[in-house]
Write a structure and sequence with these properties.
It is a single chain. This protein is α+β, with helices and mostly antiparallel strands. The protein has a single domain, classed as 60s Ribosomal Protein L30, Chain: A (2-Layer Sandwich), CATH 3.30.1330. The protein has helices at about 30-45, 90-100; strands at about 5-10, 20, 25-30, 60-65, 110-120, 125-130. The strands form two sheets. The protein has a four-stranded mixed beta sheet. The chain has a two-stranded antiparallel sheet with strand order 2-3. Helix 2 (about 90-100) links the parallel strand 4 (about 60-65) and strand 5 (about 110-120). The termini are close together.
Length: about 130
Amino acid sequence: MNNILRFTITGKPIGQARARKGAYGNWYNPQSNLKNIIQKQIRDQLPHGFKMILSTVPIIIDFRFYFKPLKSQKIVSAGDPYIKKPDGDNIEKLFTDSMEKIVFSNDNHIYSSTWKKIYSDKEQTEIEVRW
């Protein structure tokens, strides 16, 4: 596994929302604008000439989700575990879905992933993709 991509996505990490049924019975994704923002940041950080990872290649992804402490949390330090909502697996899903058709064709060839939720002075997500 020599190939590595690293991305830093700015903004507070949030979980994947469920599809919603509209007033006229149509289904829609309430986070389509957010996914577009994430996808733009991913595209902007891809190396020049990058070709999507082949669907036959296994992928490992590591996520680090960084959250600012609330002002009422005076004891929390940068690097401490963040053990509140949103759930890490829901955040991970938003980012893996956003990487589809850009970094890889489908998230079904991710064979291993890890994530950590951490307090920080800056809200962002760091992603490392290895294959």
